[in-house]
Specification:
The complex is a heterodimer of chains A (297) and B (293). Chain A is mainly α and 297 residues long. Chain A has 15 helices and no strands. Chain B has 293 residues and is mainly α. Chain B has two domains: 15-61, no CATH class; 83-239 and 272-291, Orthogonal Bundle (MetI-like fold), CATH 1.10.3720. Chain B has helices spanning 15-42, 46-51, 64-71, 83-113, 119-129, 134-147, 154-178, 182-190, 195-206, 208-224, 227-232, 240-248, 257-277, 279-291. The two termini of chain B are 31 Å apart. Classes of the chains: A mainly alpha (297), B mainly alpha (293).
Amino acid sequence: MAATGRPIQLFRNLNAKIAAIPMMLTAVVIFFGCSVWTIVYSFTNSKLLPRAKFVGLDQYERLWSANRWLISIENLFIYGILSLIFSLLIGFVLAALLDQKIRFEDTFRTILLYPFALSFVVTGLVWQWLLNPEYGVQAVVRSMGWESFTFDPLYTADIAIYGVLIAGLWQGTGLVMCLMLAGLRGIDEDIWKAARVDGIPMWKTYLFIVIPMMRPVFITTIVIIASGIVRVYDLVVAQTSGGPGIATEVPAKYVYDYMFQGQNLGQGFAASTMMLLSVSIVIIPWAYLEFGGKRRG
Amino acid sequence: MAGPRGPRPRRRFSRRNIFIYGTLIVVSVYYLLPLYVMIVTSLKGMPEIRMGNVFAPPVEVTFAPWVKAWAEACTGLNCDGLSRGFWNSVQILVPSVVASIIIASINGYALANWRFKGANLFFTILIIGAFIPYQVMIYPIVIVLREIGLYGSLWGLVMVHTIFGMPILTLLFRNYFTSVPEELFKAARVDGAGFWAIYFKIMLPMALPIFVVAIILQVTGIWNDFLFGVIYTKPENYPMTVQLNNIVNSVQGVKEYNVNMAATILTGLVPLAVYFVSGKLFVRGIAAGAVKG
């Protein structure tokens, strides 16, 4: 590095700076540099190889007129909103139940959380099997006498995304439950005593006192779930491969298919830039709330 | 067991308790069912699977599907089962975990105890970067890896895992080292200890719990990765998750559900073992790493 006018400033804590070089490189080259590179090349007509021939918003126009992309977005919305609502709801209720000073808390918590240790590929395959109409839930219910019972979400285009949702929730609610439990444990016992003395029913205490107090936990949880939702890829690949037809396509899969199989890099870059944009909408307000207001050292 | 103390509750079968335990038991059954079905299916022969339902226990227990999944199932051109993927995953896992934790612990230490100018800027980019969809960065990384000659190799994937593990691990270590009493650090400085001496002699011995948490997070995360494995390695280097998906979702041939389920369990075994052995730490790690922010 070239010597500057004030070498003392640069060489202060030299060891610390050298030690932090991998972090700086990652932050600047990978996280910042690579993202900017992709955004820039999303305005080119790169096909098999990236090339710097700029075509303005062409790729984006093509993207938003592609039926497959529109379905991907629709699926992401359905999957995302429902999985956010249900995982928060189920996660919180389960955490509240576990927080009642019960016996076997560890056992229950272990059972609820173990799916989180499994990969999305494993989760997807298991649920593909369970939802298989010939052998799975449908067949079992039919064999018990309800001959007309139909439950084959993965084979019906209109509802296939809900089949993916079932698997996603099974895998992810345990983590939400854990985060919520950590949040609940952070609430002062005295709050509960005071509420009981005042004769406030339990559900009201949760709804109007405890949940508002857990706002930071909720925000962090929502950010974690939301950024995971946008990335959802493995689960769909393993469970449905995007089918039947294109019924369970998601943006992450669209990006992958265009970049590595469709030989249409420009389209992939444009689609991934849209993904970045949607994440930014969630992250920027959060980052501002978290780091913007109060600077801490 | 450190249960609740004080006088024993008078009514054990109150309506409240029945409601709580009833709900938890029903929910637990639901969560355990897929695991049960996986195990049961993997122990049946194909004729039995075609006849019975998925929840029925096996009439004749057979371990043939397990053997086939491990050593004989075909993925693409190779027919040596998941064993190849397993060893690939191990070869990817060990250096990635070691490298990412060494780098992140030193980063966290530098950030927490040696606040130098500009460090916060890099740290902020790093943390925000953790939320950027991978899809935005995967192609430029392909180019970078190709330029340095690591594309398709196991080492390229190790590098990618090390990079993407950095934000969360650095955050964990930084938060942990920030909570170490400052007097300790100052006393060491007065005694003339430098950057590395303080790291090795004071911080490292104190940081054991956070190291365990970091190891758990990285082992489960890297083992379960699919996207990076499929993009940055060639078929002979595919990690286990990618191989599993290829075995199960291959289009040709009759679907052997028992082999598929055995393969699925085999792939899930490592993270599950980590999770069951270190369950409490895992929970604490997730909660601490995420809620603290």
